[in-house]
Design a protein that fits this description.
single chain; mainly alpha
Amino acid sequence: MNTYLSLYQNIGWSLSALVLLTFLLAGTVKGVIGMGLPTVAMGLLGMAMAPAQAAALLLIPSILTNLWQLAASGHLRSSCKRLWPMLTMIVVGTVLGCWALGFWGLGMGSAHGMGRALGGALFVYALCGLFLPTLKVSPRMEIWLGPLCGLITGLITSATGVFVIPAVPYVQGLGLDRNQLVQALGLSFTASTLALGAGLFWNGALGSAEMNASLLAVIPAVLGMMLGQWLRKRISASLFKRVFLIGMALLGLHLLISG
């Protein structure tokens, strides 16, 4: 058990408590609106630790909750057939972004620079969600816009660990029904998480201590997701999402200012 707790022992119990509470909150958000776990985790943990360490911690909770989301939604084959160009370019963009940084992605550059990049990504994402109308993607646009959005999403993922821009607005503009939308978002997040994990591994920021700590973070994330699914039946998901976006905007602004 000490092996699984080694990273938490190194960072101290107050920061460990923040990690567990963050994943409980992040899982709850995902349970209510079907997304937001990595966004919340990177935003809150990015204030207290290096972005690379925060990204390493979110890998396993993100992958497992996305697989849960995929298994519960159906439409897997049709979603893969429609979205594979975007998914492929997410991976390509993440790899290219890591190479362009010259350090294989997160954690090897300036912590202040990474913090501001994370803040900027959160702030832009929140403003888009709050004020921009839903994108309408025609079949003709889908041919070129999907790969372009995937490439840009991958580049942003490599720099910030946040993989919602512009993939989420694009997927929401495809006119999918609720189950198909949940499926498509799960596929996008899974591809982004796996690509980010590969970048962290080659960067040397993903060792056994980080993997073990990430595995333990699954517990609060799953509990939070179950709580969120329970809450979704009892509260307005649209109001909850609006409050979530306002919180992300304030958090992004704070990270932009403080770095």
